Amino acid sequence: MDINLPDGDGTRLARLIRKNHMSVPILVVSGNSGIDNKITALGTGADGYLTKPLDRNELVGNLEPIIRRTHGHSSATVNVDNLILDISRNYTKIGDTRLDLTAKEFRIIEFLALRKGAVLSKDAFLTHLYGGID
Length: 134
Fold this sequence. Notes:
- This protein has helices at about 10-20, 35-45, 55-70, 105-115, 120-130; strands at about 5, 10, 25-30, 50, 75-80, 85, 90-95, 95-100.
- It is an alpha+beta fold.
- The protein is elongated, with a radius of gyration of 17 Å.
- The two termini are about 25 Å apart.
């Protein structure tokens, strides 16, 4: 969400969303780089704040923990039965056995582990693996 919306202030919208107990993640992307703007947005319920122009890696770096928290994973380590997945270090093991995975294989396991129990579409997989690139 942007702070400067055509029909109002984005911080008011974030506050309204949180007041109504909506658990939707909010990432503010704004041209306003002032520290006061960032503090206000985060204080009203935003999960992150990025300044335009965006760096792709910074965007992904902010989105991944927001997605993890949205799915109930507060740390970078995800446990699914005896599978242990450390997202910050790209480390995977089953029980005591480390799995040597390619980057793509790791992203697939990560996607499935973070969304355990959800029905996933082919498009969702492709977007996760390739970032929506056609």
